[in-house]
Amino acid sequence: MNATTIPQSKDRRVDHSALRTNQAFIIGLLILAFVLNAPILVAFVCAVMVIGTLNPSAGLFKAVYFYGLKPAGVVKPDVKQDNPEPHLFAQGLGGIFLLLASLALFSGASTLGWGLSWLVVALAALNLFAGICVGCIMYYQFNRLGVPGFTRAPLQ
To answer: Which domain holds residue 29?
Structure first.
């Protein structure tokens, strides 16, 4: 633990079904955007991710889970002891990449734009299908190095 680390509480929980629903929407909509050559859809996913990072209760894809899929019994909760901050960092990083992708696509640099979009798809798929959150790994490394703002260490 470094000097900027916040003491950990054992009651921190994250519903990983909400995270997986979010990832599935990101993957599905970005692939659809590519197939339809619809940069506006990339910009939409970007907006959802950035808004959901800055205000987690306003995350649209997670809201579909919490207010639709979960109550209907379509997706069961998977609540785990976990820190939400690394997941929000990962989502925010994805949102930044999609912002850059959107700017590239709208300015005619389609190879760069679609490449960045596919990077987000690949990282979301790695998390969804293999449980490897690259943004979370980065967050915890920044915490270990004492980078300001990265205050949560992995739960023990």
So the answer is: 15-73+82-144
